[in-house]
Design brief:
Blueprint (H helix, E strand, L loop, with lengths): L3 E4 L6 E2 L2 H8 L3 H12 L2 H7 L5 H11 L5 H10 L5 E2 L1 H12 L3 E6 L3 H7 L3 H4 L3 E4 H4 L6 H10 L7 E5 L5 H8 L3 E4 L5 H10 L5
Parallel strand pairs: 1-4, 1-6, 4-5, 6-7
Antiparallel strand pairs: 2-3
């Protein structure tokens, strides 16, 4: 029986549309490509999720590596990008309904400290019985250790947990499934698919 619902944040609770975000800062297709190649897909992006580098450190590394080409773009993007994300209120409403029906709500997300600090006072987080953010733990999904941190810290039984994640490659929920946590990939930002997953697991909402 499922007692605990574990939410990912990006593209579940928070709409994380990389292309839309990039185009809010870039002035050309070349700059869009730069944002993807040199920021989103750069080592510093993962390092921020691991809490191993500050925004300022990431900016300096990326600018230096690119001989300060697009210096202003890099600085502005890394300092402001997370403010352009929006909360998926329809999915938050589902979480509120789950909470009112007696389920425990948890977060397990790969996220930089700066992004979490920006969102942490949103009403959604007041619903949560526990929150695990990769930057605070210095380990990220799909590493099994971060799932174990969640289970151990909050005394959860894996088989009583349902994990809601949009991971395209399947690594995040495959790790969860391997250790006994239920769940499958959901369509990004889709409240209807969240509802479908809950129904599949006989969760009342």
């Amino acid at each position: 029986m499922v007692k605990n619902i574990i939410f990912d944040l990006g593209n579940v609770i928070i709409n994380y549309n990389q292309d839309k975000i990039a185009r809010n800062f870039a002035k050309s297709e070349e700059e869009v490509k730069y944002v993807f190649d040199e920021i989103f897909n750069a080592p510093e992006w993962a390092m921020q999720d691991l809490g191993n580098i500050t925004i300022e450190g990431a900016i300096e590394n990326i600018n230096r590596r690119n001989n300060y080409k697009y210096e202003d773009l890099t600085t502005n993007f890394l300092s402001e990008w997370f403010k352009l994300q929006e909360i998926n209120r329809d999915i938050v409403d589902i979480a509120k309904s789950l909470k009112s029906n007696g389920y425990n709500i948890f977060v397990l997300s790969n996220m930089a400290n700066s992004t979490y600090q920006f969102f942490k006072n949103d009403d959604f987080f007041s619903l949560c019985n526990g929150i695990i953010i990769s930057a605070e733990e210095h380990v990220k999904k799909p590493d099994e250790r971060i799932y174990r941190i969640l289970l151990d810290r909050y005394n959860l039984v894996a088989e009583e947990c349902l994990f809601i994640d949009d991971d395209l490659n399947g690594e995040n929920y495959n790790t969860a499934n391997r250790i006994g946590i239920k769940g499958r990939r959901i369509i990004p930002n889709s409240s209807e698919d969240v509802k479908k997953l809950l129904e599949e697991n006989k969760v009342k909402f």
